[in-house]
């Protein structure tokens, strides 16, 4: 296939894995090789980050922060705006790289880059809206207010499934807040990170901004531990599994640092008798098979009222027969590959557990073989009918497996929806106002995201993204999530000739 997009993005066979300008003696002599799940072909390599190189990267970031924090916030926003313009120029090439290195459809690859552009636009506006508050003092001749200051270095650990967008959600907000960032990208999609950095460093050089404002490091979990254990990095924003989040959260909290955790999801759609079945099918189908089920917001469970269960069951099974599975850069295909062979093994193990736990397959799964499937990473999206209390249903499998569940009344459906350890995204399909409002009430969905008549998958950048329970409780992207990237300071100014004490305390000499 044509891979001109690699040259457009400045990628080579061997790519440097951190900030530019570091001493060659610091470079590790080991590389991460990136192979495409699309066709199994070698794409390129990225140098892993040695401990010495990491420390040099942090030192560069610290020096850059001393400069960057004094740049007025609207001027910082201008740098982000220019990056957004560069992303517009490179949207096609970067979207193709995302699709090829990660395996998601080309439309989703382009869509992910569009999210980056959108968050740049959001951050530009935010750069003029980092508001504090003013308060009335109880003491005469005093004024109180609060203001927000940048934290310093923000460590960003991202996952393979959104190899560029999640970094941008964090870094663009952090940048306008006056922070600098160090990005530990997924070792499964390292070239996407290098490409983003190549584009951004062009903007930094043209504006004479220190390159240490944005750095990347590469490697496995051990390189991630450099960040999580480092007291010089006050905030870690990490996306990944719940297991990873438990370990990282404890380490960061142990050193009194802050963390934003975006972890596992086990998302459900409740389908009521009043729902529009055309909307149900579209929302459930894309939610379950989009990105081959490798989104944290993917639909894992479809909870259907018993009066329409058979209708939904038949319609959904028929829709699955029309799915086209193949090369994701071919826009005629709906479903691409899983990220690697380890993901395929996890998928197959889940199918075995479904059978062992009493489930039956409405739509059979399996691994695809033959022409076009040489990478061994293409699997069949499948549907299982199973009891909602089965252990496998409460587990997040990062694959296109949908569990079809039945309920009798809405309270039962909400209990099933909430009866899993994760709490990211949820949805209800209904044309009944009371049902919708109950689902959105405090006794309804316990997730960080709750939708009506749209699916669980995907989110707009204007809203704060994140979930509850084992999903981690963090928020990033829109709304007021910017506050997580700054420190709050309360100020009191005495402009009188006296020094009255608070609460009327008297202290006389």
UniProtKB/TrEMBL annotation:
It is an enzyme of class 1 (oxidoreductase). This is aldehyde dehydrogenase (NAD(+)). InterPro entries: Ald_DH/histidinol_DH, Ald_DH_C, Ald_DH_CS_GLU, Ald_DH_N, Aldehyde_DH_dom, ALDH7A1-like. One of its GO terms (molecular function) is aldehyde dehydrogenase (NAD+) activity. Homotetramer. The active site is at 262. Residues 29-490 form the Aldehyde dehydrogenase domain. PANTHER family: ALPHA-AMINOADIPIC SEMIALDEHYDE DEHYDROGENASE (PTHR43521:SF1). Its EC number is 1.2.1.3. It comes from the Bacteria. Keywords: NAD, Oxidoreductase. The keyword NAD applies. Belongs to the aldehyde dehydrogenase family.
């Amino acid at each position: 296939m044509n891979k001109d997009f690699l040259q457009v993005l400045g990628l080579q066979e061997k790519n440097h894995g951190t900030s530019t300008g570091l001493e060659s003696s610091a470079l590790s002599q080991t590389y991460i090789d990136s192979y495409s799940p699309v066709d199994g072909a070698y794409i390129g390599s990225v140098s892993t980050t040695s401990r010495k190189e990491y420390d040099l990267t942090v030192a560069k970031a610290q020096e850059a922060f001393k400069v960057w924090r004094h740049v007025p916030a609207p001027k910082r926003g201008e740098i982000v705006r220019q990056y957004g313009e560069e992303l517009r120029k490179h949207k096609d090439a970067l979207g193709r790289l995302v699709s090829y290195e990660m395996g998601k459809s080309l439309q989703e690859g382009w869509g992910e880059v569009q999210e980056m552009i959108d968050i740049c636009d959001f951050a530009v506006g935010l750069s003029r809206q980092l508001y504090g508050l003013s308060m009335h003092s109880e003491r005469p001749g005093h004024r109180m207010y609060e203001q927000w200051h940048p934290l310093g270095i923000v460590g960003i650990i991202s996952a393979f499934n959104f190899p560029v967008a999640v970094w941008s959600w964090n870094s663009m907000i952090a940048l306008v807040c006056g922070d600098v960032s160090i990005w530990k990208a997924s070792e499964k999609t390292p070239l996407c990170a290098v490409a983003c950095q190549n584009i951004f460093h062009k903007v930094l050089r043209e504006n004479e901004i220190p390159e240490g404002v944005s750095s990347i490091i590469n490697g496995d979990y051990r390189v991630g531990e450099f960040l999580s254990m480092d007291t010089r990095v006050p905030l870690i924003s990490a996306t990944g599994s719940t297991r990873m989040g438990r370990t990282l959260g404890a380490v960061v909290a142990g050193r009194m640092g802050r963390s934003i955790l975006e972890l596992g999801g086990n998302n459900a759609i409740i389908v009521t008798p009043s729902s529009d079945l055309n909307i149900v099918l579209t929302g459930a189908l894309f939610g379950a098979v989009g990105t081959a089920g490798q989104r944290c917001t993917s639909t894992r469970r479809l909870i259907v009222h018993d009066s329409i269960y058979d209708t939904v069951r038949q319609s959904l099974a028929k829709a699955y027969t029309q799915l086209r599975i193949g090369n994701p850069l071919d826009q005629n295909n709906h479903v691409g590959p899983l990220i690697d062979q380890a993901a395929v093994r996890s998928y197959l193990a889940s199918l075995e557990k479904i059978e062992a736990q009493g489930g039956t397959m409405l739509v059979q799964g399996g691994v695809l073989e033959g022409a076009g499937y040489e990478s061994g990473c293409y699997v069949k999206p499948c549907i299982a009918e199973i009891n909602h209390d089965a252990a496998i249903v409460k587990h997040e499998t990062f694959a296109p497996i949908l569990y079809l569940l039945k309920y009798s009344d809405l309270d039962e459906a909400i209990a099933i929806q909430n009866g899993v350890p994760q709490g990211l995204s949820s949805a209800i399909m209904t044309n009944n106002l009371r049902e919708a409002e109950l689902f959105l009430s405090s006794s309804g969905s316990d997730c960080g995201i709750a939708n009506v008549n749209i699916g669980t998958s995907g989110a707009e950048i204007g809203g704060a993204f994140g979930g509850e329970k084992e999903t981690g409780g963090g928020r990033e992207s829109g709304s007021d999530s910017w506050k997580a990237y700054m420190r709050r300071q309360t100020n009191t100014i005495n402009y009188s000739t006296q020094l009255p004490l608070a609460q009327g305390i008297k202290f006389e000499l």
